[in-house]
Write a structure and sequence with these properties.
With 558 residues, this protein is of the alpha/beta class. The chain has three domains: 13-284, P-loop containing nucleotide triphosphate hydrolases (Rossmann fold, 3-Layer(aba) Sandwich); 299-517, Nucleotidyltransferase, domain 5; 523-558, no CATH class. 32% of the residues lie in helices and 24% in strands. The chain is built from 17 helices and 25 strands. Strands 1-4-5-6-3-7-8-2-9 form a nine-stranded mixed beta sheet, with helices on both faces. Strands 10, 11, 12, 13, 14, 15, 16 and 17 form an eight-stranded mixed beta sheet that branches. Strands 22-23-24-25 form a four-stranded antiparallel beta sheet, covered by helices on one side.
């Protein structure tokens, strides 16, 4: 069948304009006190920016990133806040960074409401603005159809405007400025909108994308995941309903509603709102996309990153060994015979450690990763300790951290009994080297996507064994967020395990992203060895470039 050639697309052009009056409001006293330094800088000398924005709103309005994304709860004033930034942008001169503000909502009601908010902000900021205009654009589609597109605009004395457009990618093509895509998860072609919007960055424009969630597989949620995984260099904000409450949302709503507010306290109001949303509260209020579930790190993803270059050392003892008076001496011998040769064989490159603690039921994992080349990390050494007493674990951990090449950072699982060992390392090596992590769902939500992104990008290598795969498959999506499930697996040693290695890996991966500590000395190339690390005094190994003073001082430097 012969294809009919497509007609070239004609850009939209205005066909008619209808003006609607906009009240010229003056700023009232409560509206005048600072928002944030970034927003204040955009306000003229006639008066400071309004204090009407709550802290979470101030952070959004003050974000000067080229691309910023806001994952948000419903009805927390996000669009209203963004309107303030649109007015400040359009009312500023070109020399001050002013430009057009282009708003895209998915319905006419949204665009009208946004323009009304902009009119309010123009009055509050005391900015000279013309009347709100209703504009009809004529748009020719690829099929040759001509459609009328309604838009709304406010012109400013600066020569720039706020223009509220339809939810069509081509509506912003050929334009330039600050692009705002509101409730992005509910647009029919978000990918197309983003493609068109990103072109604004070439000539100094900015892009703002804000939305509540609309499902796990929605393009907006995939965008948020890519940002968390480090695949996109965008600024990311997240505000749940409870976050907004902590920042004063209830007091603001109560102030605006007056006698219509039926609830005396924030807790009572919160309970009532959540009851009204029912099962939809997680997605609508808590920023948790629906339909999440299943294995988060599938077998094939881990298999592609496995390598024979990664060594695993296992050491297990029976429960009664805890009372063996010679256990520390036996540990010294094990270190000399097994651990030291493995550490001596490591390449002399930057090292990080993630440590997951276990005592009787779970394994303790010392997961060493090293930067083999820039941006590529290999799990060169993994220690699995089963049923090893606390004092022995601390002795092994102390020796390992003191002998690893170019130690950069260590992150400990500091929950439960692991807190004692983590705290001891923190006291000895300092905050530049050690972080005690209390892993929570929020911590997992922040760091698991980045770790998964590292696996997808082949930025790391892991041991080639079934235990590694089994541990990774214990990470599942629950309510749209990665977490550990409750199941166990029988490991290669015939004993039970519960995802122990994957926690150590995520901790180590987070350590790779930690900023380096300041250099406080430089090696002279000579080795000096003082008293034992287990006693008073110090030990400095210039070959490894890492020094420690017993008692907690960290010389750092490499």
């Amino acid at each position: 069948m012969k294809k009919t050639p497509q007609k070239p697309h004609k850009p939209a052009r205005p066909t008619q304009t209808r003006a609607t009056s906009t009240p010229d409001r003056q700023a009232s006293a409560p509206v005048r006190a600072g928002v944030s330094a970034a927003v204040q800088a955009a306000v003229s000398a006639t008066g400071p920016a309004p204090a009407v924005l709550l802290p979470f709103q101030q952070r959004w309005a003050g974000d000067r990133a080229d691309v910023a994304v806001w994952e948000k709860s419903r009805r927390i004033g996000a669009s209203w806040t963004t309107a303030s930034d649109a007015v400040l942008t359009a009312s500023a001169s070109a020399e001050a960074g002013g430009q057009d503000a282009l708003y895209i909502g998915y319905s006419e009601d949204m665009t009208r409401e946004f323009i009304d908010d902009c009119a309010m902000w123009a009055g509050a900021f005391n900015k000279a603005a013309g009347a709100m205009q209703e504009v009809m654009f004529e748009d020719t589609t690829d099929d040759g159809d001509v459609r009328q597109i309604k838009a709304f605009r406010i012109d400013f004395a600066s020569g720039f405007k706020v223009l509220a457009l339809s939810s069509r990618p081509r509506s912003i093509r050929g334009k330039q400025g600050l692009v705002i895509i509101d409730e992005a998860a509910f647009h029919d072609d978000l990918a197309g909108l983003l493609k068109a919007a990103m072109a604004m960055l070439i000539w100094g424009g900015k892009v703002r994308i804000l939305s509540s969630h609309n499902g796990e597989d929605n393009p907006f949620n995939l965008l948020v995941k890519d940002i968390r995984a480090g695949k996109l260099p965008y600024s990311l904000h997240r505000t749940t309903f409870d976050d907004a409450l902590r920042d004063g949302l209830f007091d603001r709503v109560k102030l605006m509603m007056g006698a219509r507010m039926k609830h005396a306290t924030a807790d009572a109001w919160r309970t009532a709102i959540r009851a009204q949303y029912g099962e939809g509260a997680a997605e609508e209020l808590d920023c948790i996309p629906s339909m999440g579930g299943g294995v988060y790190l599938p077998r094939t993803l881990v298999e592609h990153c496995q390598s024979d270059e990664c060594k695993v050392i296992r050491w297990a003892k029976p429960p009664e060994w805890m009372l063996n008076p010679n256990r520390l001496a036996e540990t010294d011998q094990w270190i000399a015979d097994v651990l030291k040769p493995a550490v001596d064989a490591l390449p002399n490159v930057r090292s990080v450690v993630g440590r997951d603690f276990g005592r009787s039921g779970d394994l303790s994992i010392e997961g060493v990763m090293q930067e083999i080349r820039r941006g590529f990390w290999r799990a060169t050494l993994t220690l699995e300790l089963r049923c090893i007493p606390f004092d022995v674990q601390e002795k092994i951990n102390r020796w390992l951290l003191d002998h690893l090449p170019l130690l950069h950072h260590v992150k400990f699982d500091a929950r439960g009994n692991g807190q004692q060992l983590a705290e001891a390392a923190l006291q000895r090596l300092g905050v530049a080297r050690v972080e005690c992590v209390m892993a929570t769902p929020t911590w997992y939500a922040e760091h698991f996507p980045s770790y998964k992104g590292g696996l997808e990008g082949r930025a790391m290598e892991l041991p080639r064994d079934e235990d590694e795969i089994a541990d990774h498959r214990r990470v599942v999506l629950k309510n749209g967020y990665p977490t550990m499930d409750a199941g166990t697996d029988k490991g290669s040693d015939g004993k039970q395990r519960h995802g122990d290695r994957v926690i150590a890996r995520v901790l180590a991966w987070a350590a790779t992203r930690t900023e380096a500590a300041p250099i406080e000395f430089q090696s002279t190339g000579q080795r000096r060895v003082g008293a034992s690390l287990d006693g008073p005094g110090r030990r400095f190994d210039a070959d490894r470039g890492f020094g420690v003073v017993a008692g907690g001082n960290d010389f750092g430097g490499f």
